[in-house]
Design brief:
Layout (H helix, E strand, L loop, with lengths): L1 E6 L11 H4 L4 H14 L3 E6 L3 H10 L6 E5 L8 H10 L3 E5 L21 E4 L3 H12 L7
Parallel strand pairs: 1-2, 1-3, 3-4, 4-5
Bound molecules: 3-dehydroshikimate (DHK).
InterPro entries: DHquinase_II (IPR001874), DHquinase_II_CS (IPR018509), DHquinase_II_sf (IPR036441)
GO molecular function, one term: 3-dehydroquinate dehydratase activity
Organism: Alteromonas marina
Amino acid sequence: MNILLLNGPNLNMLGQREPDKYGTQTLQDIVDDLQAQAASSNVTLTHFQSNAEYELIDRVHAAMGTVDAIIINPAAFTHTSVALRDALLSVNIPFIEVHLSNVHAREPFRHHSYFSDVAAGVIVGLGAMGYSLALTAAINLPKSQK
Ligand SMILES: O=C(O)[C@@H]1C=C(O)[C@@H](O)[C@H](O)C1
């Protein structure tokens, strides 16, 4: 099974970026833990992070036919990117949306997501554990959601 993990803008700054909201683990720390979890489940996990919308879009397109599920934290693009939403809809790969912080308890502009209504599932506010839970869910998605 192949799972693609996508992280959006500013998540490369995790560890020093507003630790009260996003925690103190670096993105590499999080990815390392997920890679270990994936290996224990005989799953191939590929990670890509970009601050550029078009790079994330291109990576979603490239996943067509090769990836069984996507875990994505679109970061700020969550609240702005119709284009990235459309990319995910264009490849017909189930995806799970993850947010480290509870976006619903933050500024109003973070309460809307262009992804949640077309996601297989959404995990918010659980910090790095959210990614781990998303990986477990992605591995166990029912056929109907694949
Ligand atoms: O909680 C998170 O992981 C999301 C990460 C970001 O960078 C924000 O722009 C989102 O609003 C929330």
